[in-house]
Amino acid sequence: MSKAKWMDDFNHDLLSFPPLIWVVQDFVQQTDDGETSQEWLHRLMTTHTRDNDDYDISLLSIFKHVDCHTLFLPATTKHLLSDLSRAKEEDLTLDYRRERDSLIQKLRVGLVPKEKNERPITGPELAGLLQILVDAANDGSLSQIPSRWAVFSQQLEDTATEDCLAFYEAELNAQLQRYAGEPVNAELLQGLHEAVKEKAEKLLEHLLLGLKDTMVTAAEALSREIFTKYHFLHEMNEKRIKLKLTESQHRVELETEETLGSLPLAMRSSELQVLLSRVVEDAVVKLTSVVGQLIADDMLQTQIKLLQSSVKKLRDSVTLKNSKALEEVMSAAASNAVEKFKQGTYNKEHQPRSQSMITRLISNGRADAVKVYVEESELAEEEASYEAYTALLMVHVTPLFRHSKNLLIASAGILMYSRSYRERSLVKCRSAVY
Questions:
Q1: Of the segments 39-53, 192-206, 266-280, which one has the largest average pLDDT value?
Q2: Which of 53, 148, 191, 280 has a 20 to 30 Å separation from 302 between CA atoms?
Q3: What gap in Å lies between CA 280 and CA 316, rounded to an integer?
Q4: Residue 294 vs residue 226, higher pLDDT
């Protein structure tokens, strides 16, 4: 019945009923704080209500008084309980007969004719009232009093589900503790989840053994709760894996940079490339050993490519530094070679030399210069610029060679002049003597 109809259109006097007696099969259950059967019924009626259109029609508002009357088990044998029509009066339990007789007496005393406008209500009017109550019950407007077995089953279902869920969490956490709080492979986590879930479901079957309907609803509830727990755990594990990947790659990059920075430059380019390849391989091995078990192969290859790309920049930087260092080596070797040539051909006495001596000095000087350059630039002989620096050395040596040749010519002229002067002096002396 809608709220509007109840508040505006309905005659409330029509729902003024005599006291209601609710007959409950009594399981001789102890209640809390000495609660009587009537107090128990009133509590259930106030705590278990169903609203319809924002309003509920409570039995307590329809009946002037609500009483609860308990009946003990009518029989104690399976044969009679399965069909009480077989039971004779003497087959019924003494407690049942006593409570039954008490109920009959209570009904006889409490029966009062239904009246409307100070006159007994007619049959059609009573049938209309009953139709209203039936419709209200079908719509869920009337309160429903759950049986004690339903309450017990629900409590058993709830506690069993909670216990199995707690077992799932504790068992899965115990399995994950073996990894010291580190993230685990997604497939491994899935396998642990399924194994522990199966144990939890078996535990639920043992706890609710024989309760088929309860077992079905409890299994569905447990499955939903476990899925929620696992979904959260899976998301957290994926986040820890990503964090582990980032930290591991950064750590390997730093270690690789430190290793490359400690290389003694300059060195042969071929040797450097071998060392660089080895360093890159070591970096890949380090990363794989840390995260290889956490991620799939395709994702691992992606991480390796990212690492190789990062390390390549470091590798190119070291290669460039080594090239510059080798150029410095060749430049220094060329300077030392030129200086060696100068020292070998320098005329300390500033005296004229013979042509053969000057030729020998120049040849020896060039040989010594080339020897110095070759020895001191040995590390760079594989460089593409090695020949260019060698040619540059000869460019520097050639002017010195020409200068030395001019000295040779000048020395020869001085020597010839000296010989001519001596010859003229002898002629003059001889003439004087004659």
A1: 192-206
A2: 191
A3: 12
A4: 226
Q: Structure tokens of 141?
A: 């407007």
| CB-facing half-sphere around the CA of 247: CA atoms within 13 A | 10
**What is the tens place of the pLDDT at every residue in 93-133?**
898 899 889 989 888 887 777 777 777 778 887 788 778 77
- C-alpha to C-alpha distance for 341 and 367, rounded to whole angstroms: 8
Terminal alpha carbon distance of the chain: 174
Cα–Cα distance between 244 and 153 in angstroms, integer?
Answer: 47
pTM over 0.90: no
What does the DSSP 8-state code read for residue 262? Answer: T
SS3 content of the chain, % helix, strand, coil (to 5): 75, 5, 20
Q: Could you tell me if 370 and 423 are in contact, meaning their C-beta atoms sit under 8 angstroms apart? A: no
Say how many CA atoms lie within 13 Å of 46 toward its Cβ. 7
- Find the angle CA(11)-CA(13)-CA(14) to the nearest 5 degrees: 75
Tokens of 300: 């691992």
Per mean pLDDT, which of 51-55, 122-126, 400-404, 420-424 is the most reliable?
Answer: 122-126
Mutual angle of helices 297-345 and 212-261, in 10-degree steps: 0
Q: Are 161 and 221 in contact (CB under 8 A)?
A: yes
* Token pair recorded at residue 324: 């510059």
Strand positions, DSSP E, 289-333: none
Return the higher-pLDDT residue of 174 and 137: 174
Question: Counting runs of H as helices and runs of E as strands, what totals does the chain give?
Answer: 13, 2
Residue 171 CB coordination number (10 Å): 17
Distances in Å between the Cα of 116 and the Cα atoms of 7, 11, 121 are: 20, 11, 6
